[in-house]
Amino acid sequence: xxxxxxxxxxxxVMLFKLTNFLATFQTMMNEILWDLINTGxxxxxxxxxxxxxxxxxxxxxxxxEVIRRLVENxxxxxxxxCKWKV
Length: 86
Hints:
Strand order of the largest sheet: 1-2
Strand content: 15-25%
Distance between the termini: 42 Å
Number of helices: 3
Number of strands: 4
Order of helices and strands: EEHHEEH
Structural class: alpha+beta
Helix content: 25-40%
Shape: elongated
Largest sheet: 2 strands, antiparallel
């Protein structure tokens, strides 16, 4: 946050030279996906999200939920970098 004569502002994007950027981003990802991480269905490390299921049942639903949460939090992903059902 920063204060100006106009009021108090909170940036909506990461500023250049932000210290601990990776830790901040990891914390944000943990907050977004906390219940999926706690049930062992999803693993998140920085900008990698891995969905793991025992069988094919329910895999697509979890992937859809992860994508929905990323979109709701204004995070982008590049489909060409995604691996599906590996």
